[in-house]
Amino acid sequence: MNKIQGFYNIESNGKEYLCKLRGILKRSDKRENCTVGDYVIFDEDGFITEVKPRKNLLRRPLVANIDYGVIQFAAKDPVIDYEKINILILNSLYNKINPVLIINKIDLLTKEELEEIKSNLEYLSKIDIPVFYISTYENLGIEDLKDFLKGNVTAFGGPSGVGKSSILNLLQDSKELKTGETSKRLRAGKHTTRDSKLLTLPSGGFVIDTPGFSSVDLPPTENAQELISLFPEFKTVEDCKFNNCVHINEPQCGIKNAAESGKIPKERYDFYKRCYEKSKNEIWNKYK
Ligand SMILES: Nc1nc2c(ncn2[C@@H]2O[C@H](COP(=O)(O)OP(=O)(O)OP(=O)(O)O)[C@@H](O)[C@H]2O)c(=O)[nH]1
Ligand SMILES: [Zn+2]
């Protein structure tokens, strides 16, 4: 969607339509009313009459209905930060965006160093978070990533200097354009709005660059139960003795048992405990 003087560019069944917002949608006058990625209903007169509920909303840049959030780090230079990775995954789940991890610059590692990083991150595959090991310099892992992103809308985030621009450039590599496929196939018939913020992938799908960052906070949950809901793997184990168990000091805690027996990765339980303490001290007391 290129929003030019109030017009929205909508894609439907492979065709594009220029539409305006119906007065009733415009009236509350919010930038977030209708944005890139929204599914909308429009009428014959070219007015958008309804914006469908969103599965998520990214704010910088403003884009709705993202399929995946790529969290990108470098294996080296800048140094990999495991805690930051965990916190970003948590934020992604908080915002209802499926997280995916990319570790770039693996050309800078010895075989042993790469194995060490892979083993440190192995627990992520146990909780169904895909990890891609990539080198844009040596073109390693790019094809697998392209396959994965095909047909999806993916936002890329990460600290600066990890090679986001380098990967986005490679992904847009137009070699595949020759096959005559265009992005038009994406979401045909679903009336989605589009925008120049979305970079089109030759094989179908879009990627979005988000601003780099240095620090990152825990998500602003309101209580322990909301934090626990961001650890989906906790739902898969047997119940705790107490209904309102926060899995810290309670006896007969199913989560603690699962972490001890290895059913839940220990890294995840330890990370949960750190989040619990920090949220309790710095966030939740605001709500009391
Ligand atoms: N060794 C190595 N260096 C890489 C690789 N990919 C990118 N770089 C280098 O890393 C530096 C940062 O790359 P960019 O693509 O500008 O990184 P970015 O994440 O977009 O950085 P910001 O624009 O600061 O957000 C550049 O000097 C790249 O040449 C890689 O696979 N291996
Ligand atoms: Zn428990």
UniProtKB/TrEMBL annotation:
<keyword id="KW-0547">Nucleotide-binding</keyword>
<dbReference type="InterPro" id="IPR027417">
    <property type="entry name" value="P-loop_NTPase"/>
</dbReference>
<feature type="domain" description="EngC GTPase">
    <location>
        <begin position="64"/>
        <end position="214"/>
    </location>
</feature>
<dbReference type="Pfam" id="PF16745">
    <property type="entry name" value="RsgA_N"/>
</dbReference>
<dbReference type="InterPro" id="IPR004881">
    <property type="entry name" value="Ribosome_biogen_GTPase_RsgA"/>
</dbReference>
<keyword id="KW-0378">Hydrolase</keyword>
<feature type="binding site">
    <location>
        <begin position="158"/>
        <end position="166"/>
    </location>
    <ligand>
        <name>GTP</name>
    </ligand>
</feature>
<keyword id="KW-0694">RNA-binding</keyword>
<feature type="binding site">
    <location>
        <position position="247"/>
    </location>
    <ligand>
        <name>Zn(2+)</name>
    </ligand>
</feature>
<keyword id="KW-0690">Ribosome biogenesis</keyword>
<feature type="domain" description="CP-type G">
    <location>
        <begin position="55"/>
        <end position="216"/>
    </location>
</feature>
<dbReference type="InterPro" id="IPR030378">
    <property type="entry name" value="G_CP_dom"/>
</dbReference>
<keyword id="KW-0963">Cytoplasm</keyword>
<feature type="binding site">
    <location>
        <position position="253"/>
    </location>
    <ligand>
        <name>Zn(2+)</name>
    </ligand>
</feature>
<feature type="binding site">
    <location>
        <begin position="104"/>
        <end position="107"/>
    </location>
    <ligand>
        <name>GTP</name>
    </ligand>
</feature>
<feature type="binding site">
    <location>
        <position position="245"/>
    </location>
    <ligand>
        <name>Zn(2+)</name>
    </ligand>
</feature>
<comment type="subunit">
    <text>Monomer. Associates with 30S ribosomal subunit, binds 16S rRNA.</text>
</comment>
<dbReference type="InterPro" id="IPR031944">
    <property type="entry name" value="RsgA_N"/>
</dbReference>
<dbReference type="InterPro" id="IPR012340">
    <property type="entry name" value="NA-bd_OB-fold"/>
</dbReference>
<protein>
    <recommendedName>
        <fullName>Small ribosomal subunit biogenesis GTPase RsgA</fullName>
        <ecNumber>3.6.1.-</ecNumber>
    </recommendedName>
</protein>
<keyword id="KW-0699">rRNA-binding</keyword>
<dbReference type="InterPro" id="IPR010914">
    <property type="entry name" value="RsgA_GTPase_dom"/>
</dbReference>
<keyword id="KW-0342">GTP-binding</keyword>
<keyword id="KW-0862">Zinc</keyword>
<dbReference type="Pfam" id="PF03193">
    <property type="entry name" value="RsgA_GTPase"/>
</dbReference>
<comment type="function">
    <text>One of several proteins that assist in the late maturation steps of the functional core of the 30S ribosomal subunit. Helps release RbfA from mature subunits. May play a role in the assembly of ribosomal proteins into the subunit. Circularly permuted GTPase that catalyzes slow GTP hydrolysis, GTPase activity is stimulated by the 30S ribosomal subunit.</text>
</comment>
<feature type="binding site">
    <location>
        <position position="240"/>
    </location>
    <ligand>
        <name>Zn(2+)</name>
    </ligand>
</feature>
<keyword id="KW-0479">Metal-binding</keyword>
<comment type="similarity">
    <text>Belongs to the TRAFAC class YlqF/YawG GTPase family. RsgA subfamily.</text>
</comment>
